[in-house]
Amino acid sequence: MRRSLADSTFLRVYVLLALALLLTFGLALIGLAMVDQVRREHYREQLAQAPMQLLVEVLVDLPEQQRIPWLEQHSEQLDMAMTLYPADAISLNYFERTRLTNGRVLVKSRGDHGWRLQQLLPGSDQLLEVHLAGLSEQQLHGLTELFGDWLSGVQGQERQRRLQRVARGSIPVELSDRVPEGLYPRQMSRLEEGEVVIRLLPGRWSMSMFLRLEGPDTSVRWLVIGPVTAFEPMPGALQLFLLFILLGVLAVTIYLIVRGVEARVARLELAATRIAGGRLDTRVKVESSDFLGRLGMAFNGMATQVQSLLRAQQDMIRAVSHELRTPVARIRFAVQMVEDMTDDAPIRRQLRGIDGDIDELDGLIDEILTYARLGSESANGMELELTLVDCRAMAERVIDALSPLHGHLRIELADGDEVEVKAESRYLQRALQNLVANACRHARSRVVIRLHGEARLVRLDVEDDGPGIPPAERLQVFKPFARLDDSRTRRSGGYGLGLSIVQKVMTWHGGSASVDESPTLGGARFTLLVSRRLTTPA
Fold first, then answer.
1. Res 196 pLDDT > 70
2. What is the mean pLDDT of the chain?
3. Strands 106-109, 115-120: parallel, antiparallel or unpaired by DSSP?
4. CA–CA distance, 97 with 120 (Å, rounded to integer)
5. Does residue 343 sit in helix, strand or coil?
6. By three-state DSSP, how is residue 103 classified?
7. pLDDT number for residue 217
8. Dihedral, 415, 416, 422, 423 alpha carbons, nearest 10
């Protein structure tokens, strides 16, 4: 029952962790989608940075009164709507305003209507806003030509500085004195004539723009823009693969954590089982100060308290039993003196009855002391002195000891093979003798001892032809001072401790004692099971 409870507890833990993993999986999917969206927005800003920076630089070079006409003229040429107005005229949040102040471009989607680009003019509070429906060849040609015209207006280092201002944090842009490679002859002819040439690289999903610069400086002749690569979202298969790897790592990590917790709880369960088996010196190793560590400390405190209470109880039982011996001895001496002083037959008969009661009280004291000693040795974890016991010879000794006391009964040892087992010889014989003595008190005419040697254990059966024990009361007979109304009365003798001693001995040996109905004699059959590979409770 305890094992199934632990299993159900950890089943709930595993289910909750599985739900947590699924939640993590969903969050990871959302996270990947967000990362992909951020990459997409960064790509758009990087793509828009160079043309917007070019337009801003051109406007800055123009007088203020010429800027609006220039925008109106080039809006149609570049196939994009361009306007200029004060930055305070639009509502911007803190992050957007910070980006504009730092010279960055704001890219905002307009849904099906395209995109809106915004950038501040350096040293001014004016904002350039560009609306475009998409990226077209007309825009690429127009912007490249505008860039070339703007660079052609200066020479030397100034041209290089202009190039760097536009190319900063944007797509690749360079001036080269080498003729572009990979162009068809017709493209080279057009390039020599001063046209913009666009080369597509389908295998790489990219394109480059080329333009010959006009001017006296012939050392740098070619403007190369690109390659501009298309946005590549993270492949879905790769996303799933990474997510499953993450899920696997989390699953293994959580399994190891829960496995460690389960192992610690299993040690608690083992310790509780040992204490239930009578090994009250068992303690749990406390490894941490978490809730399981505190549970272990509470468990050890409980075990210490229980062991202390039982030890005190056993000490009291031994002390009382020893103290009873002195008055019992005085009573016996007094009875013997009275018996020697009188010859009256009725008085001597009464004295013999008193003497029998004294013998019974002596036997009870011996049983109590034996029971207390077994409990004390088991609780203190004392090791058994194991020897190889010949079970058949032991049974014969028990028969020889009890046969003279029960002359009206036939006590037999059934035929069989020799059986040996490693055990504490004295206590195992005491257990068998208690069972045979119990059978003799209730048998009508016959008691049989049977020995069975099996591969892993030895079985000792004691059967009688008495009234037997009702099934509902078979577990009660092993309790101390237990007496059954029909078969265990004062007239049958016994003190209610013999079978309890048997149970203690078998528990100490790591075996068991049980009772059922004898299939051959019809009475009770008591069974002792002792393992051939004896392992005492530790």
1. yes
2. 79
3. antiparallel
4. 10
5. coil
6. coil
7. 54
8. -30
Position 11 confidence tier, pLDDT thresholds 50, 70, 90: low
Percent of the chain with pLDDT strictly greater than 70: 85
For 159-175, b/e burial (b = at least 16 CB within 10 A) is beebbeebbeebbebeb
Q: How far from each other are the two terminal CA atoms of the chain, in whole angstroms?
A: 22
Residue 212 parent element (H or E): strand 206-212
Determine the 3-state secondary structure of 487 from DSSP.
coil
Q: Kindly report the pTM of this predicted structure.
A: 0.46
- How far is it, in rounded angstroms, from Cα 181 to Cα 191? 12
486 has a pLDDT exceeding 60: no
Residues 213-252 pLDDT 10s: 865 555 557 888 878 777 777 666 766 777 778 777 777 7
Q: Classify each residue of 29-54 as buried b or exposed e, where b means 16 or more C-beta atoms within 10 Å of its C-beta.
A: eeebeeeeeeeeeebbbbbbbbbbbb
103: left (phi over 0), alpha (psi -120 to 50) or beta: left
DSSP tally for the chain: helices H, then strands E: 12, 15
CB 500 within 8 A of CB 371: yes
Q: How confident is the model at residue 488 (pLDDT cuts 50, 70, 90)?
A: very low
367-382 as b/e: b if 16+ CB within 10 A: bbebbbebbbbbbeee
Q: Is residue 119 helix, strand or coil?
A: strand
